[in-house]
Amino acid sequence: MICKHCVRRVILLCVALFTAVHISPQLTNDHEFLPVDEAYPTEAELTQDGRLIVRWVMPEGYYLYKHSLKLVGKEGTELGSLTIPPGKQKTDEFFGEVEVYYNFLEISAAIVAQSRAEVVVDVHYQGCADAGLCYPPEVREFRFAGMGSETDVASELTVSGSAGISIWVAIGSALLAGLILNLMPCVFPILSIKAFSLVQSAGQSENLRHALGYLCGVVVTFLVLAILLLVLRGFGAAIGWGFQLQSPGFVVAMTLLFFVMSMNLLGVIEIPGFGLSMTQPNPFMTGVLVVIVATPCTVPFMAAAIGYAISQGGINLVLIMAMMGVGMALPYIVVTATPRIAAWLPRPGQWMVTFKRVMSIPMVLTVIWLVWVLTRQVGLIGILWSSAAMILLAIAALVGRRQVKWLTSVWAIMLVVIASAVYAVSRPDETLQTADSETFEYERYQVMVAEQRPIFLNVTADWCLTCLANERTTLAREGVHQTFDAYGVTYIKVDWTNRDAQVTKLLEQFGRYGVPMYVLYPSIGQPVVLPQVLTPDLVRNFLDTYEGRST
Predict the structure, then answer these.
(1) Buried/exposed 449-481: b ≥16 CB within 10 Å, e otherwise
(2) Which of 28, 113, 333, 450 could form an S-S bond across to 78 if both were Cys, CB 3.0 to 4.6 Å?
(3) Which DSSP state fits 154?
(4) Which letter, b or e, does each residue of 280-296 get, where b requires 16 or more Cβ atoms within 10 Å of its Cβ?
């Protein structure tokens, strides 16, 4: 006899099977979960300073657990402590109270040592979906080419883009970059002083002495910059070419120096012993100044040379910077060492007075530009301090002109005024920050790149004259922006006027250590770095070539 309870159990089992077969697929189709590789696409890179960076850009509704994240070195690779940002608190149905990450996550660890040719790391992670699916723990292995054995690899790992060139190509690029720097408007006022002194010099021996002094000033200043770069980057500072102009104190000091020089050219200030005057220029100090004012400019061949020098470091950086100094001083040395060329120079005369007045115009414009850069860095307080300092300097200089016996006191007052202005704009005070300053949102940028949107990236700085020229002549043109719109390209402007480690990291990804940098991200394919000097036709051609094929 058949048991009634058994029959009931069979009927319930059949109903359950029918529900599982016919209803469950419909429920799961409402939540079609992504494969784990699409839900948590994992990217890893090894930076030139020896840090492993792992990042995820996750679709909406998916998250990673903080407690599951781990980087494990393998095959002789040793890692330092894990750097991980704070997560979002969440009450999870699987693990209870946890920290999780939505949308974007980046973690990193330093490569402490390696005993084999490769850096090998396992990345551990686990995530879930808000819709109710929890993925099993995942492990991804990444391998990177390394150098050396059982040593600190931070100084040995190279970055793509500049490390691939040879030392001789870098030296040649540095020499050419130094030569081209002489043609840039930022150094023209200072070079005019050298040309002026060359015309009025006493003879060939005097010219050679001035040329050697100028060469020493240029090369020594480049070497000082190289040593500063080595020391500061050794302490972990994220800096590159033109780093001193990211300091408001340096900018205000240069503003006041150029103000005194412009007054000298106009004949308002004639202080005996002024080492950068038109009448008695100090060749070494002129060489120092010409390098300092050249840093806002970036020229062809410079990116490859500077990128190679900084990525290699050590003696290579010193050698490349010294060679750039030789290239910059070379034209003046050639003129002074060649009597036939020197004979073409005009003779001294009344025209020299007019020439001095004309040369004061670019000097005054430089002062105005530096004050504008200062306001972009510290706000309107920069105008107040620089203007007050220039008024005091003018008064002190006029007193020193009429009372030569007070000259020592006048110089002391000038130094105090300049030091006070530098201190005032350099102190860490929240009131000195510009109200409209924007910080580069590196995570948002990474999300846009991961979504494969076409992007035109412009990394610039207000103190970079090449950047400003490109923006005025090309990137501000309506026709260029119409081309962007036609291809659906998003234009992103990244400001490096003030020091920003995120922007420096972005530059280093492409082997660059200075601005400008222009990168085109097409819809299909890898990003393309554009030349540092732009024209509207050049930008359109790049868009037609790389984005045109995508559409």
Answers:
(1) ebeeebbbbbbbbbbbbbbbbbbeebbeeeebe
(2) 113
(3) G
(4) ebbbbebbbbbbbbbbb
Q: Residue 336's closest CA among 213, 208, 442, 148? A: 208
Q: Give me the amino acid identity at 417.
A: V
Instruction: Give me 194's structure tokens.
Output: 């050298």
Distance CA 321, CA 302 (A): 10
User: What are the pLDDT digits (tens) for 442-489?
Assistant: 777 777 877 778 899 999 988 888 888 899 999 999 999 899 999 999
Distance of CA 165 to the CA centre of its chain: 20
| Distance (Å, whole) CA 470 – CA 536 | 9
37 Cα distance to chain centroid: 33
Phi, psi of 54, deg, nearest 5: -120, 135
Tokens of 68: 């599951």
Contact 397, 268 (CB under 8 A): yes
What SS3 string covers 376-412?
Answer: HHHCCHHHHHHHHHHHHHHHHHHHHHHCHHHHHHHHH
What is the Cα–Cα distance from 494 to 113, expressed in whole angstroms?
34
Q: Which residues contact 298 (CB under 8 A, 6 or more apart)?
A: 241, 464, 466, 467, 514, 515, 516, 532
Q: How far apart are CA 520 and CA 543, in angstroms?
A: 8
Q: What are phi and psi of 105, to 5 degrees?
A: -150, 140
CA distance 308 to 163: 6
HSE of 119, CA atoms in CB hemisphere, 13 A: 29
* Model-wide pTM > 0.90: no
pLDDT beyond 80 at 57: yes
Alpha-carbon gap, residue 163 to 149, rounded angstroms: 20
CA-to-CA distance for 425 and 379, rounded, in angstroms? 10
Give DSSP secondary structure letters for 174-220. HHHHHHHHTTSTTTHHHHHHHHHHHHT---HHHHHHHHHHHHHHHHH
C-alpha 364/C-alpha 265 separation (Å) is: 10
Q: Identify residue 171 by its one-letter amino acid code.
A: I
Please tell me what DSSP assigns to residue 451.
Answer: T
Structure confidence by residue, pLDDT tens digits, 336-371: 777 677 667 666 667 767 777 787 788 888 888 888
Do residues 367 and 259 touch, judged by C-beta distance below 8 A?
Answer: yes
In sequence order, the β-bridge partners of residue 123 are 71, 140
Torsion of CA 246, 248, 249, 253, to 10 degrees: 90
Q: What is the mean pLDDT of residues 200-213?
A: 68
Cα 527-532-534 angle, rounded to 5 deg: 95
Report residue 91: phi and psi, to 5°.
-90, 105
In DSSP notation, 102-147 reads: ESEEEEEEEEEEBSSSEEEEEEEE-EEETTS-BPPPEEEEEEEE--
Angle value at C-alpha 412, between 406 and 413, nearest 5 degrees: 90
